[in-house]
């Protein structure tokens, strides 16, 4: 996919000080991404690399395929090669303490990219989305599909009383974002569960029960299959599924299809995240109800602007200094907004912004 970065670069990173010092001088920046198995991380890596190179940096972009020792080794190599800064989307935010101490010893600033790096003082800034809000949006998309609220979460006049059977999935327990998504969703769903409008028939309502290691779709599929067998073999139907990520949603869809569910009026409402192409197509076909669009091009811009500012000995722009405590200190953060995507606004949100084309969506 070729994306236009200019539209979302807010005029380009530039050097934050306006004179460009520290940018455009061939300095090496290491970029560590978790995996190529998720479409979104490929897009993130490409966007960060392209924008850094536009600033005149050399870029060492590495993917670790969700293997922690590999990511540690890749970051060690970036330090050895003389990287002036590191942008890291961690696999497990708790496993980088020693290698980040090595970076600190070499005076290398570290930008945590989308996933908070935990249990270390050696991270400079954090660029991400408002992850609690993403969780709220995921819950609202399920509630909207069930006819209970609009996409902003406002009650709908004449909404059905239910009860609706829902099941809930969470992200990977080693990803700090997963708990923010879960908390936002649970705070939004709880009043409906308490009122009996929503029923979690499996009884699996804790993060630990719902967590999906490495955000793996096959793991989610197996869990959904087990839930269907154990809790729905009496002929009752699943009406909705809270899913925190498109890859997990596709696993859930496979489990439902294998169990005999067919798209149509009785097909469950399924949420998602990341606007991956296969899931956007699934929204068009009625298999997935919604996804959360997080524009990775804008996230790349935020991370690049942070990098340029730090290398210019300047303070990057941040908009949150309270919520992202990594266990050692509250990491100053810049959070971006996200959008709910449903079938009716795919063109407006994804095509008109240049993220996907009509031809790609099909």
List keywords for this structure.
362 residues; alpha/beta; 6-stranded parallel β-sheet; 38% helix; disordered N terminus
Description of the molecule:
The chain is of the alpha/beta class. It has 12 helices and 12 strands. It has a 6-stranded parallel beta sheet, sandwiched between helices. Helix 1 (39-54) crosses helix 10 and helix 4 (131-145) packs parallel to helix 5 (176-194).
In brief:
This protein is α/β, with parallel strands linked by helices and 362 residues long. The longest helix has 19 residues, at 176-194. β3 (85-88), α3 (97-105) and β4 (110-113) form a beta-alpha-beta unit.
Q: Secondary-structure map with pairings?
A:
Blueprint: E1 28-33, H1 39-54, E2 58-63, H2 68-80, E3 85-88, H3 97-105, E4 110-113, E5 125-129, H4 131-145, E6 164-168, H5 176-194, E7 198-199, H6 207-210, H7 217-231, E8 240-242, H8 246-258, E9 269-270, H9 277-285, E10 290-293, H10 296-311, E11 333-336, E12 339-342, H11 346-351, H12 358-361
State the strand order across the main sheet.
2-1-3-4-5-11
In percent terms, what proportion of residues is strand? 5-15%
For the record, give the distance between the C-alpha atoms at the N and C termini, rounded to a whole number.
14 Å
Low-confidence stretches: 1-22
Largest sheet: 6 strands, parallel
Rg, please?
Answer: 21 Å
Helical content (DSSP H or I, runs of 4+): 25-40%
Mean pLDDT figure: 93
**SSE run:** EHEHEHEEHEHEHHEHEHEHEEHH
